[in-house]
Amino acid sequence: MSNASELSTLSYARYGKTNVRVFRIVREGKWHHTVEYSVETLLEGDIETSYTEADNSVVVATDSVKNITYYLAKVSPHILSAEKFALHIGTFFASKYAHIHKVHVTIEQLRWKRISIDGQEHQHAFYRDGDDKRVIKAVVDATAGKHALTASLTSGVVDLLVLKSSGSAFENFWKDEYTTLVPVDDRIFSTSIDLSYTFPNIKLVSPQDDAKLEFQIPLKDGDEGFKGSVWDEDVPKRARDATLQTFALDESASVQATLYKMAQRIIAENDGIKDVTYTLPNKHYIPVDMKYIGLDNLTPYVLSNTFPCFIFYCFFPVSSPCSFFFFLFFRSDSHPSFRHSRSCVSPPYHHDQQQKVSTRYRRFLDKRLSLG
């Protein structure tokens, strides 16, 4: 009989520290800036013997990973930009440790917004502005050598809950013997938006100092290629504004049509973004049937006899089942084979894109299950 070691082999491994909570204040005189992050850093490289031979000599302790995260949060001049901070963390680990070849950094950023008093933003008082979070996923790659670091980075927002009470329709859809849905020309449109956008591969400058703490920004504002790139700190606001403003202003024929316009605007306004992904679970609001007490709450535009200047509707929110929409949008010049395609079947995802899709779908399912 074969022994266990002959029947299996280690295929892939990464490890590190997750949920490292960081809150940082940067003071510019009386004007304070704050960020709150949850950081995950995972390492991969020549670490297989720690699994196969119980060899801990190749293990950078996860406690050290945590300590380094806090140290960089203190000394990095890029702490206020989650994208730059993620790349700084990855560059440090990939440069300092000879046997570490890839570093995966994920940062979730909570929202803190300045309190306004008489129209003026307060210098050091903030409030939590919504439950949505910015999410940044960076991979720093040193497999070509410590002198030739590259990176990939995806940024975005999750759990952005939106609703509009009009300006949305759904008509002329496919009908057959299974169709019970009634076409509507005006309805509530509500969803929890998960948005991500990916930048082209990034060439990083390897640290020149012995401590490997240096992190150089290759493009500055005004340089060719800066606007809309990963180094442009206005990209997150433009992407968020494009999403919210398109949602509000579009006379929506369907969720799909509105998604398409959102992604078009993000691509158009940010030259450095190569693809955009949205996932949207619909939040349904069902009119309450009140015919049992003589009230019509189901027919659109029924005026109230008591308050004739108002149109009343009463709904009950439904968490499940819900519609679910996934959307991946490429910049045409980065994927010319899609330029004239009208098919949305079996797109040729890169492995990382497949992993992103499956991870986001699992995350959606986990959220639904947690709601009971």
UniProtKB/TrEMBL annotation:
**Keyword Nucleotide-binding attached:** no
Q: Which UniProt keywords apply?
A: Membrane, Oxidoreductase, Purine metabolism, Transmembrane, Transmembrane helix
Extract the Pfam families matched here.
Uricase (PF01014)
Q: What stretches pass through the bilayer? A: 310-330
Superkingdom as given in the UniProt entry: Eukaryota
Cellular component (GO) terms are: peroxisome
Q: Which GO terms describe its biological process?
A: purine nucleobase catabolic process; urate catabolic process
Entry EC no(s): 1.7.3.3
Entries under InterPro entries matching the protein: Uricase, Uricase_CS
Q: In which family does this protein belong, per the annotation? A: Belongs to the uricase family.
Name-wise, this protein is factor independent urate hydroxylase
Biological source species = Coprinopsis marcescibilis
Provide the taxonomic classification: Eukaryota, Fungi, Dikarya, Basidiomycota, Agaricomycotina
